[in-house]
Amino acid sequence: MPNPTRILYCHCAYAQVVPADTKAAVLEQLSASGVSFEAVPDLCEMSARRDPGLADIAAADGATIVACYPRAVRWLFSAAGSVLPEGVRVVNMRVAEVPEILLALELPVETP
Fold this sequence. Notes:
- This protein is of the alpha/beta class and about 110 residues long.
- Strands 2-1-3-4 form a four-stranded parallel β-sheet, with helices on one face.
- The chain contains five helices and four strands; from the N terminus they run βαβααβαβα.
- Helix 1 links the parallel strand 1 and strand 2 (about 40).
- Helix content is about 40%, strand content about 15%.
């Protein structure tokens, strides 16, 4: 699988539905990896504001969004008027373990 052209990491700052340890570990690994990514405080809040940045993300070829349930992420974009194309991947930090998330992002998984 080729590296995505754009990674968007949602910190879920307001809803707090993603485990704090998971968010911290994924953000730390993304930051240490040297991979280019964009971190946003909260996609739900961006959707509520109809943030134009969502349209930019939706237009990116090969985008990967690290957030929560794919259906919820797609709905958030749709509610903001920016439908995600089928090729966009959504990695679910709400239920996936950190190693699984890192593998989906093609980042090294550290073993104890």
